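Lab meeting minutes (informal)
Scribe: AK
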Amino acid sequence: MDAIVAEPRPAAVTEPRPKLGLRAMVIEDDPDLAEVIADYLQRSGFDVEISGDGAAAVAAAHRLPPDVVVLDLGLPSLDGVEVCRQLRTFSDAYVVMVTARADEVDTLVGLSVGADDYLTKPFSPRELIARIEAMLRRPRAGTVNASGMPLPGERRIDELVIDPQGREVSLAGTPIALTRTEFDLLDVLSRRPGMVFSRDQLLSELWGPGWVGDAHVVDVHIASLRRKLGDTAAERRYIRTIRGIGYRMGDGRSQR
């Protein structure tokens, strides 16, 4: 099996950790790889379910909703992109997409339908667990931010309304369905609307300072967020690209 980077099992997962009370679903049609991933997740405290078929996995997620999904791109019956698209109609689970294809288009397509992160085979199981744990450390509704202060209240930017406490977004009175990562990204940008964030800063805010991977994952989520907000890179009404630096919130007015 060449999808996993050969490495000794780290001491950190030699003994199982206490249960987290979280469910992980591994959707992978290679049974050996699925077992390795599931083993690492179980030793990290997750309850794990394995599915080797896309349609069956969607049905299983309906019956018992997961908190985290590790999703292979190439699956029988339904591919990973379609599985992710269907999951996003009823689940806000974190989704890490795994692909054996080097073609960047596959990765971008996967993220555009709601995946939170991706890994390309072969990959390190330790890296997978680190990515998942970083996502789970993000603040959620009803929590406080890093400064210890309560999260700010409703924010209004022209026709865009962001409610951090309720984790809801609307545009001109119409609710906008965002993935967890898309909402977290919009939350960070709108919390400090005058600040320009570099990709590395956004990665640190959302994935944690120890995150290792392709920084262009930020660009993919920005593109998806713009599309859902009816924005474009040319108009930059709500999210502005600052060339050579990064991104900041707009004021709702077109920059075309």
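Next up, CB showed the second protein from the same session:
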Amino acid sequence: MTGGALARVIARPAAGPADAPDRCDLCGVPAEDGHRHLYGTGRAEVLCACRACALLFTRETPEAAGEDHYLLIPTRRVRLPPVPTEGLGVPVGLAFFVPRAGGEVTAHYPSPAGATRWEVVPESWREVVDRCPPLRALVPEVEALLVNTARGRQDHWIVPVDDCYRLVALVRREWRGLSGGDRIRQAIEGFFADLAERGEDARR
């Protein structure tokens, strides 16, 4: 995802000014707190949507607009039992995996420079899904498997992709020095604590 509202957040300097109020990327009006996001498939971008514009995309089949099809990003957040991701080629403990409409899966991990991306080996992804059946219900393009196994954590979530890119922006903004420092650790812990408060737990 290289454009749109969340990409602008990610591109801001780490020590830059406070975020300006969000505006709807479709009609330009101020977007309400807690507003929804759309995913534009043509340009692979996440866009802010005011309540009125978001309602236009609540139908099962997305509307076409120019070269784009816009998909309303879901809001569900589900905590999963530990998912065996060792075979997915993740070099770090914090990463997310997005299934695509064509069947491929892209993996990303946040870094001080943004999100690093690579393609997951299809057979490896199928093995993970076989061992965690809830992943079969991931909505292509707009939901992701988010994993945090850093420092002994076992956080595995189904989340909307806009959550993933908020995490990318957070890492870029809070990283200090070569290793990130205590500030980034506390920020990531806060991010997952917020997920736990807002999401449902499938481990029970």
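CB comment: The longest helix spans residues 181-198.
No objections, moving on.
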